[in-house]
Write a structure and sequence with these properties.
The complex is a heterotrimer of chains A (326), B (250) and C (226).
Chain A (H helix, E strand, L loop, with lengths): L6 H15 L2 H23 L15 H17 L4 H16 L3 H35 L2 H15 L3 H10 L3 H7 L11 H27 L3 H9 L4 H16 L1 H14 L11 H12 L2 H30 L10
Chain B lengths: L5 E10 L2 E11 L4 E5 L6 H8 L7 E6 L2 E2 L7 H7 E4 L11 H11 L5 H14 L15 H14 L4 E5 L7 H16 L4 E4 L3 H7 L2 E6 L2 E6 L1 H6 L4 H15 L2
Parallel strand pairs in B: 3-8, 3-9, 6-7, 7-8
Antiparallel strand pairs in B: 1-2, 1-4, 4-5, 9-10
Helix pairs in contact in B: 3-4, 3-5, 4-5, 5-6
Chain C lengths: L6 H9 L1 H35 L2 H16 L2 H11 L6 H27 L2 H9 L4 H16 L1 H14 L11 H10 L6 H30 L8
Helix pairs in contact in C: 2-5, 2-8, 2-9, 3-5, 4-5, 5-7, 5-8, 6-7, 8-10, 9-10
The complex binds adenosine-5'-diphosphate (ADP) and magnesium ion.
């Protein structure tokens, strides 16, 4: 069941996305995006709104509105040949309309990133033993690990969120914990989402790591045993360092997936990027502008993740091993 | 007289229906270099792997330096510290440099600190003539260099016995020489080696004894002069003459 | 603490099994329609990425990056409330899932097309076929066989993601579950959502098994698997 063999396809998908995104303009956009985010978060979270009041945008709308209307009338006066100018006018209109919502969305991006990073990191901690159990375990541990991954990979993440949120006492338990929902610590729904993402992503990550471990030649463990390492130490010092490198492409893929699927946390009231966008949209009815904006934010996060993973891959690359030089 | 360094006593091993070793017995003393020859599938690799218990035997006993190492309570990792192994396809740790390959066992098995292990590692790379490649990764080395690192890795554990499983048969002909050269040096230094190899030049000049294995049995066992010039068993002669013809082209 | 699951909660699920089965029907229909749309758009897109050039190729690649980089949730909402492509939730969900699936399927096909040895195309040209004909009758058949595993993966992803159509109120399986839960029987949450999950699990399991069969059927004797 499942298709661990698809890692090659996934690898090419990601490499190709990187080819397309590795252009100066994209890099510049990503840099601007992150600078803005960091300044915004610093102002809102750390400096208590010292630079500018919380919720107020850094950028004035007036110049963009003026530009939009000037260009709009220019386009009108040009008649039928004015349509390119009209497009530019539309773009400025879009900017002017978006600016007031930027601060709110930046806070949403923070929650989205937190959800993703916690989900993937905690998921990794579970995924490594899971995959080792799948490859090296006895019959019982092996089938337990298999059952876990098949269960979580065979049902929708949204259904898993619903089971945890509506059908278990998890929310009640977490709500009682100290500091939850006060100050920086998000409310219980966020933590339920983190648990769901962790459990779900552990299943997918373990599948990537499992096929990576399988691609480490058997002779490697034999040689490790031959110099006197125990099986556990051989796996730890010889097989895992290689296998985890093979797993990087699949793992990056999972990171990208998780960024996008973190939007599902909005269904259980987590106030991440999608939820905040949706809340504003249902008040202002500016669905198109707002969701195009949200889409661009997600895209920027996904591209940032791809670039980051590409960098990581380069940093840990070893000649002749894994994705490079093969 | 003291105990032999290695002794196999009536060793049997089967895989399912297939009998791979059928009552193998022989002894070798410290400093001996024994070369095992025999047709493909005759059980040579299996016999070597039984000595360091990468493969478990069905019956019989194996003694290292007088201690029975096939007891259930023998610590296999302790045994493998004392028996080094060099593989046909090198099996260098692909994520570690040449030096990393040599020092991993020193650090994780012998518990040496990093600096001491590095120092020792360099010495052993020097021994195989590769101290200048210490920082290269396996993929950056030629086959002959890889195998020399493999030998250094085994040597580093300071074993009582070194096992070689066809160390040159994965190499291009022009790279065989450098590896055989290293093995000759080790033999001259008095290191005890049990070598599966069909390098006749090495066998003639360095071996104390030749062991001819066929269908899981030792057919003939004796010094190279006797075995090569005057084989006792008909099958030995046949095998040797076939070996001559196949190696002629090289 | 929520009340312990009662016998009656399971009874409630059983009573409403017909609703759940109807929802399952919608889920299956949505999956099939989306996969088909994804194939119709994704296959040519993959071919364009391999054999195309110029602005068309760049446009296809960019559309792919955007669709693969945006959450399905955002795509669905944008199509339904923003662009209002259709007043039917089913049609909108099909377009959203289909477009996104096309972006992924194009990559499966692109990889498969590229994995077919160059020599195949040359050999076909050597017997006198034109470029288009050679691609169509020699490269494409081999590539399609090699894309079965990737396609299998994509199939189950779409199947699971149909649940996201709940956001526009489409009456698929998870929506039915949610409605049952909020329609007053909130003590049955565990029973309802476990049943729903079980149905999804059975669906993905059966899909995977059938596509495994397909893979075996179409594999070339003696040929390596993709
Ligand atoms: N792990 C194993 N499982 C099953 N059969 C094996 C295994 N290892 C070796 N054999 C069988 O044992 C026989 C001897 O193999 P081997 O010791 O590798 O021979 P040689 O090294 O002399 O070529 C062969 O027939 C081989 O198929
Ligand atoms: Mg052998």
């Amino acid at each position: 069941m499942g298709t661990p063999e698809s890692t090659t396809t996934e690898r090419t998908i990601r490499t190709r996305a990187a080819e397309l995104t590795d252009q100066p303009l994209t890099l510049l956009t990503v840099a601007v995006f992150w600078t803005w985010l960091v300044v915004r978060w610093t102002n809102d979270f750390l400096l208590d709104g010292a630079l500018i009041e919380r919720g107020t945008s850094f950028f004035p709308t007036a110049p963009f509105e003026a530009a939009a209307s000037a260009l709009g009338s220019l386009a009108a006066s040009l008649g039928p040949v004015g349509f390119p100018v009209g497009w530019v006018a539309g773009f400025f209109e879009f900017l002017a309309a978006s600016i007031p919502y930027l601060p709110e969305l930046a806070i949403g991006v923070w929650a989205t990133i937190l959800l993703t990073v916690l989900g993937i990191a905690l998921g990794f901690v579970i995924a490594v033993p899971l995959s080792v159990a799948r490859v090296y375990g006895g019959t019982i541990t092996r089938s337990l690990a298999l059952g876990y991954t098949e269960l979580f990979r065979g049902t929708p993440l949204l259904a898993q969120l619903f089971v945890l949120y509506f059908a278990t006492p998890l929310t009640t338990v977490i709500r009682e914990l100290p500091t939850v929902g006060t100050g920086f610590i998000p409310a219980q729904a966020f933590w339920v989402a983190v648990i769901a993402f962790t459990l779900n992503s552990a299943a997918y990550q373990s599948e990537y790591i499992r096929s990576a471990l399988n691609s480490v030649p058997e002779g490697q463990l034999t040689a490790a045993r031959a110099i006197g390492l125990s099986k556990v130490d051989g796996i730890r010092h010889v097989v895992l360092p290689q296998g985890l490198r093979y797993a990087i492409p699949g793992w990056s893929n999972e990171l990208v997936y998780l960024i996008k699927y973190s939007s599902l946390a909005s269904f259980i009231t987590v106030r991440e990027l999608f939820e905040r966008t949706d809340a504003i949209a249902s008040e202002t009815y500016r669905y198109t502008e707002l969701f195009v904006l949200a889409g661009l934010f997600y895209l920027a996060l996904v591209i940032s993740a791809s670039l980051l993973m590409e960098y990581v891959e380069e940093q840990v690359a070893i000649p002749g091993l894994g994705t490079t030089g093969r | 007289m003291s105990d032999p360094l290695l002794a196999l006593d009536d060793v049997y091993k089967s895989y399912g229906e297939e009998q791979v070793l059928s009552g193998v017995s022989f002894e070798m003393d410290a400093g001996d270099v024994d070369v095992v020859i025999g047709p493909s599938g005759s059980g040579k690799s299996t016999m070597l792997r039984c000595v360091n218990r990468l493969t478990e035997i069905d019956s019989g006993d194996i003694y290292l330096d007088g201690d029975c190492v096939t007891d259930a309570d023998t610590d296999v990792n302790e045994l493998r510290k004392q028996v080094g192994m060099v593989f046909q396809d090198f099996n260098l740790f692909a994520h570690l440099t040449a030096l990393g390959n040599v020092t991993l066992g020193l650090r994780k098995v012998r518990g040496m600190d990093k600096a001491t292990a590095r120092e020792r590692g360099y010495e052993h790379l020097e021994q195989v003539g590769l101290s200048d490649q210490a920082d290269s990764y396996p993929a950056e080395l030629s086959g002959g260099q890889k195998q020399r690192v493999g030998i250094a890795r085994a040597l580093a554990m300071d074993p009582k016995l070194l096992l070689f499983d066809e160390p040159t048969s994965a190499l291009d002909p022009e790279l065989v020489g450098e590896v055989v050269e290293v093995m000759r040096d080790l033999a001259a230094e008095g290191i005890t080696m049990l070598v599966v190899s069909h390098e006749m030049g090495f066998a003639r000049s360095a071996a104390s004894d030749i062991i001819f294995l066929d269908e899981g049995r030792i057919v003939e066992h004796g010094p190279p002069e006797q075995l090569f010039e005057n084989p006792q068993a008909a099958r030995t002669g046949e095998f040797l003459s076939r070996l001559e013809t196949t190696h002629e082209g090289e | 603490m929520p009340p312990l699951p009662l016998q009656s909660d399971w009874a409630f699920v059983v009573e409403n099994l017909d609703l759940l089965i109807a929802g399952t029907g919608v889920t299956v229909a949505l999956t099939v329609a989306s996969i088909l749309l994804g194939f119709l758009l994704g296959f040519p897109a993959g071919a364009i990425e391999v054999y195309g050039r110029g602005p068309l190729k760049r446009a296809v690649e960019t559309a792919g990056v955007v669709l693969r980089g945006t959450p399905l949730l955002v795509i669905i909402i944008l199509l339904f409330f923003g662009l209002s492509v259709s007043s039917s939730a089913f049609v909108t969900a099909t377009i959203a899932l289909g477009l996104r699936s096309a972006a992924y399927q194009s990559q499966i096909f692109r990889g498969a097309l590229q994995s077919v040895d160059e020599g195949q195309l040359e050999a076909a040209r050597a017997v006198g076929m034109g470029r288009f004909q050679a691609i169509r009758s020699v490269v494409v058949p081999q590539a399609l066989r090699r894309s079965v595993p990737g396609f299998q993966n994509e199939f189950t992803i779409v199947l699971k993601d149909t649940s996201i159509a709940i956001v526009i109120g489409l009456g698929e399986l998870l929506t039915v579950g949610q409605n049952l839960y909020q329609g007053g029987q909130s003590t049955a949450a565990l029973e309802i959502f476990l049943t729903v999950s079980l149905i999804y699990f059975v669906l993905t399991f059966v899909t995977n098994r059938s596509l495994d069969r397909l893979d075996d059927r179409f594999s070339i004797p003696g040929g390596e698997r993709a």
